[in-house]
Amino acid sequence: MKLVIFDMDGTLLDSQAFILKAMRYAFEQAGHPPPRKADVLGTVGLSLDAAVALLLPDLDEAENRRTVALYQRSFIELRDKMGAEAKAPLYPGARAALERLHGVDEILLGVATGKARKGLDHAYESHNIGHFFHTSQTADNHPSKPHPSMLHQTLADTGVEAARAVMVGDTEFDMEMGRAAGFRTIGVSWGYHPVSRLGAADVIIDDFAELDAALNGLWG
Known about the structure:
alpha/beta; Rossmann fold; 2 domains; six-stranded parallel β-sheet
């Protein structure tokens, strides 16, 4: 068996508009200077406490927790008012790629994301993609990327060996996590980190149409 694990935000789902709104609201309510777009997108994939610590390194633990709580509240409000994951589009070709790979008997699919379980479930339901995945790992139960805990759990869930597993993501955190778990890695150029930050990737693709060939190349 072979295993392909996808990141969610920036790889399958373009949710940057809601991430930026929620983070700016949280900073405003906490009395912090508004973060730059590039800085916020550069933290996507990390757990919230790690992302806030990177954006505001001088905060103490209590203020970090307060800012994280404000972000979570903001994102819940955006989900209720605007749909959030429901309105965030899948990237072009994402669904077709999932359908193709899901149709191959020896390939299992999964997700490893910095999203909370509630957000991931909402994305699955909104876009009707949950049935594609045999394993789904979120920030609720694991250390932040690039710690390999999420990927270790995907191997335990599926019984696939790391040498037959591939991590597909848009950030350097995804690539580093994949390498740490013994996975091969595919970086995507359309996400939230520039290609220059994806140096740990074995392969970089510019379109989901290139994914199948990239996987076959890695698997020989």
